[in-house]
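New to this. Help decode both lines:
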Amino acid sequence: MNSRQRRGVILLLLSVLCAFGVFAGVLSVISDVNSKVGPEVEAYQFKADVAPYTALDAKQFEKIKVPKRWLSKNAVTDLAVVDGKIAVTQLKKGSLLQDDMFIKKPALGNDEQEIAIMIDAATGVAGKIFPGALVNIFATFPGKNEGEKDQSRIIVANAKVIDVGKLTALEPRGDDRAAQPAKAVPITFALNTKDAQRLAYAESFAEHVRLALLGKGNPITLGPGDGTYTLDEDKNK
């Protein structure tokens, strides 16, 4: 073997050694990354924005893979948990689903039934009524006979809201179309039979029905005479 051949063999051996060195370096980097990232787990993110108090279902999410060590403790990895739940706040597209983003949809009690009415969006809801809220339901009645005073009544106190529907355009009815709301929101309540009858009566015969949102977990107690009001009560003071 001449000197040129020996140099070729030496260069070949050096190339092989360098290749092994690079390969070992790549394996080391991969091993280091794996040790830092670790195994991946499935999680879910929102496909689009979700409005507060909207019912959640599996179609609103897409599955992604996230390193387990980077996943927060309250991240949801099983979509079955959103069944029967509603969003508690505005949720943004791409946000990772977490168990503090939703609550259980309010359910009916043993002596309760669902009843829904349309509430004027401008005067009765204003975007603040949500499932689980407590409200007072006010109705105003005009005096029909001579000498009979117009009256405002709390038809139902501490009514529990269980669902808030979508804003709906209303078809004008009757002659006084200008006084009718253009849009309304269906609100569903959980009421006992007597309160459901009061609400149905108010919806049919009251001039206006409005809601007053109560503080969270703070039901009111009405004293004698607190449930009705006429303007004369202030004039006589």
In short: The two ends are 124 Å apart (CA to CA). The first strand starts at residue 40 and ends at 46.
